[in-house]
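pls design
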């Protein structure tokens, strides 16, 4: 394995962060040799019924190159062997048409790799039906130095192939990821945490662990963390929580919020949380405000739970579903308010795995109720949650993490760059262990770089990408070789961490004690204080407007940058100034126009926002 860069031991000052200083990314297994492989498919090795053709069932497909294309029906195969110069990642592309079904309908194709070191890898890809030839990306394959054999087919398929190419995969440009939060009023602590995450992104991975929720482990919430301490001598930097117990139906207090505050304020750890919010199964006969036994509730989709809760209505004001979701958001807001009052930021992963298992139900929906009416309803629900928590409840301590998949249409579920700070994936692939050729039920140490690259490209690299849940933790060697710069990992509780079928204790210790992995004791002391300012807001646990101290009169205060004329220059003024520049609000009052002129040159312009930002950051 190549030598890794030693992790930084201090976060640094706010000024350095705002100037965009980040750690260098280590070289990760890309040879200087310009390797590439291209071929017409009719020149590859064909077997078991695969054939060169110019039509399929009398249907012609013009536009192919060479003498024809290759049809791989039934159990037919198409194979080629390539000698790669160095172990690393290689991108496989094919010019092809999925010819069966309606346009946009998804079918499957299969590829298998036999590596020079004797390991194997296979993938069943979901390919959309198209009319014209298109370049399909099979993903980035880990190939080992020497001869690797790549085979297409071997099962029922409906693809025709024109040409193939294999090239070295360029490493991701981690510097493209933003360290700016989507919430312009984000607290200093949230901004500071985000800056730190960016500073290590791509050069290290942050360790994490999900705690059990409710009454699990016989009430021992430290079981997984004691296990990690025993096996590695370390503790994870990130602790995962779940706010599912705070809901309008059967909520009980299990100390989740207090533990989250203690983790951040007493132990200098990072907090993340999901929200398995439940709905009543018999929603038709449910009266808002009634208690319901947890056995009569579900977070599963309506197909599996038979719930009468219609998610489509949850975004329509005036419906009972909408009112129920409002009550649920209020209870979540009460817990997040406690964190904000304690100056604790949170990586919040609500409405997670929304697209999970899409296609396994008759109407193509996913396994949680918040995804069971499709992508468009889900995106509306996400935006409703975002605006309610930030605008109505004044919660600005949130780093918003969206849980994605890597299906052919996963981009249609993405809420948008304005509502997402981090993109995450939940890795569970030990029991279907294909990535490194091991037997099922053993740890899978692959860095799943093909999935990382898909999520990277989902936002054109603008958002950091994390593993929010997982079984096996990828090995350091694979993370480096595969160019998969995951921000953090976070095994689910119980056997997902503590069974050797998922995480071998020696491998766990190797990761935790590597220079590549950041643990709790290695987080900087100024993790939450490196950014120097915070918006001035007054927030309660009830729905309120964000407020500031009112000025005593109508006359300007005379303080440059005091856009809201309240006698204080703070983050609210900066947000208002940005809005004015973007012309999203009207400067209808002369007081606003005069006070927004920070440099006092008689004009309100972008330079005023720049100078105000520098002032607030003490630059």
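designed seq:
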């Amino acid at each position: 394995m190549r030598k890794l860069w030693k992790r930084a031991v201090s976060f640094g000052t706010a000024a350095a962060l705002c100037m965009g200083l980040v750690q260098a990314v280590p070289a990760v297994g890309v040879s200087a040799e310009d390797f590439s492989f291209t071929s017409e498919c009719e020149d590859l090795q064909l077997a078991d019924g695969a054939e060169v053709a110019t039509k399929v069932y009398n249907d012609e497909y013009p536009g192919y190159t060479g003498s024809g294309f290759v049809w791989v029906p039934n159990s037919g195969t198409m194979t080629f062997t390539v000698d790669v110069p160095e172990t690393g990642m290689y991108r496989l592309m094919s010019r092809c048409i999925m010819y069966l079904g309606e346009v946009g309908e998804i079918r499957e194709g299969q590829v298998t790799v036999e590596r020079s070191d004797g390991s194997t890898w296979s993938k069943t890809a979901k390919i959309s039906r198209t009319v014209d030839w298109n370049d399909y990306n099979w993903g980035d394959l880990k190939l080992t130095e020497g001869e690797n054999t790549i085979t297409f087919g071997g099962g029922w398929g409906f693809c025709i192939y024109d040409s193939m190419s294999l090239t070295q995969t360029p490493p991701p440009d981690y510097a493209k990821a933003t360290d700016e939060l989507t919430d312009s009023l984000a607290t200093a602590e949230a901004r500071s945490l985000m800056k730190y995450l960016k500073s290590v992104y791509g050069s290290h991975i942050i360790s994490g662990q999900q705690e059990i929720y409710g009454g699990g482990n016989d009430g021992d919430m430290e079981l997984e963390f004691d296990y990690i301490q025993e096996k590695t001598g370390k503790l994870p930097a990130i602790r995962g929580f779940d706010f599912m117990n705070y809901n309008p139906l059967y909520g009980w207090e299990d100390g989740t919020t207090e533990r989250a505050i203690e983790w951040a304020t007493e132990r200098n750890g990072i907090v993340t949380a999901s929200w398995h919010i439940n709905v009543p199964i018999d929603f038709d006969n449910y009266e808002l405000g009634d208690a319901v036994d947890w056995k009569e509730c579900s977070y599963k989709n309506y197909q599996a739970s038979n719930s009468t809760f219609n998610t489509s209505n949850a975004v329509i004001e005036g419906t009972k579903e909408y009112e129920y979701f409002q009550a649920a958001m209020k209870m979540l807001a009460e817990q997040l308010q406690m964190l904000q009052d304690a100056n604790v930021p949170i990586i919040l992963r609500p409405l997670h795995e929304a697209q999970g298992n899409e296609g396994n139900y008759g109407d193509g929906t996913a396994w949680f109720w918040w995804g069971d009416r499709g992508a468009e309803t889900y995106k509306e629900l996400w935006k409703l949650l975002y605006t309610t928590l930030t605008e109505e409840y004044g919660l600005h301590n949130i780093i918003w993490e969206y849980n994605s998949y890597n299906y052919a249409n996963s981009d249609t579920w993405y809420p948008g760059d304005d509502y997402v700070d981090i993109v995450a994936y939940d890795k569970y692939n030990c029991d279907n262990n294909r990535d490194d050729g091991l037997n099922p039920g053993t740890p899978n140490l692959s860095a799943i770089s093909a999935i990382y690259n898909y999520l990277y490209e989902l936002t054109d690299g603008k958002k950091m990408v994390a593993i929010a849940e997982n079984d096996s933790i990828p090995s350091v060697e694979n993370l480096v070789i595969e160019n998969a710069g995951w921000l953090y990992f976070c095994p689910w509780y119980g056997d997902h961490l503590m069974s050797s079928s998922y995480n071998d204790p020696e491998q766990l210790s190797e990761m935790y004690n590597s220079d590549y992995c950041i643990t709790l004791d290695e987080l900087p002391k100024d993790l939450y204080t490196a950014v120097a300012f915070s918006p001035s807001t007054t927030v309660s646990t009830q729905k309120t407007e964000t407020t500031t101290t009112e000025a005593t009169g109508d006359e300007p205060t005379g303080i440059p940058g005091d856009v809201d004329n309240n006698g204080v220059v703070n983050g609210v003024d900066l947000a208002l100034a940005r809005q004015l520049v973007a012309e999203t609000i009207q400067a209808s009052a002369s007081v606003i126009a005069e006070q927004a002129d920070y440099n006092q040159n008689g004009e309100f312009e972008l330079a005023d926002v720049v100078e105000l930002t520098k002032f607030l950051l003490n630059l």
